[in-house]
Design goal:
It is globular and about 70 Å long. The termini are close together. It is built from 8 helices and no strands. The chain has 237 residues and is mainly α. Helices cover 76% and strands 0% of the residues.
Length: 237
């Protein structure tokens, strides 16, 4: 048993306090910028301030789902478990961020649209994308054999990513109730410079949080996989 444990990767240490503190300070500064420093939008008023958290969470979720895609393709090419660990870690983090999107969206929509939800192209495709990645996580619980689980997950992860560009482009390709893009929407849809800087800083803070969560979830998956391998070795012995 000792020889097996010594052959495993050494460091599974808990996340460092400076990392947590750094992310906390970034989030606190982003919150200050979004809630206090940024000017109040003239049409929607105070409720528009949720925009900074809503949009930055969505962009961060897209990054996480792209990492699922990269990890899935890399696993199919190499069959190395570390890519499967990355994929499941990124999928869980991406689902968490898009849960924030799906919660903050209706909170923003109700005062502005008068309704909590409408089945337009952007909202429907986003909800379907969220369901796809929840299904990805559920699929992993249904397959016990590690290699088969990783293979099926990689194939499904690539399939699920097909909805990501659909979500991103939906408000450009179809007329929807969702607002048109104001950051990359062309010359007629520019933002106030302070609003833009606050949004970019909020995205930076969310990316830092994603990195923190991703590292911890990756370590957890690596440890779980190692324990599963040890259990199979003991059963075989």
């Amino acid at each position: 048993m000792a020889s097996v444990s010594q052959s495993r990767p050494a460091s599974r240490a808990a996340i460092s306090l400076p990392s947590v503190l750094g992310v906390f300070l970034l989030l606190a500064a982003a919150s200050y910028g979004a809630l206090i420093w940024a000017p109040t939008e003239s049409t929607m008023g105070l409720i528009q301030r949720i925009f900074y958290f809503h949009v930055s969470s969505a962009w961060t979720g897209f990054v996480a789902f792209f990492m699922v895609f990269i990890g899935s393709v890399a696993y199919l090419r190499t069959r190395q478990q570390r890519w499967d660990w990355l994929s499941v870690a990124a999928a869980e983090v991406g689902v968490a961020f898009f849960t924030i999107v799906l919660v903050t969206g209706p909170i923003w929509a109700k005062p502005v649209w008068g309704i909590w939800w409408t089945w337009d192209a952007r909202l429907t495709s986003t909800f379907i994308m969220w369901l796809l990645y929840v299904s990805y996580l559920l699929l992993r619980t249904l397959v016990e054999e590690p290699d088969r689980r990783a293979l099926f997950s990689a194939l499904f992860g690539i399939f699920a990513f097909l909805d990501v560009p659909l979500v991103f482009g939906s408000i450009r390709w179809w007329r929807t109730q969702h607002p048109q893009p104001i950051v990359m929407g062309g010359a007629d849809s520019g933002m106030d410079p302070v609003m833009f800087r606050v949004l970019m800083f909020a995205w930076l803070a969310m990316l830092a949080l994603m990195t923190l969560l991703l590292r911890q979830r990756y370590r957890l998956e690596a440890t779980r996989s190692e324990l599963e391998t040890m259990r199979h070795e003991l059963e075989a012995a």
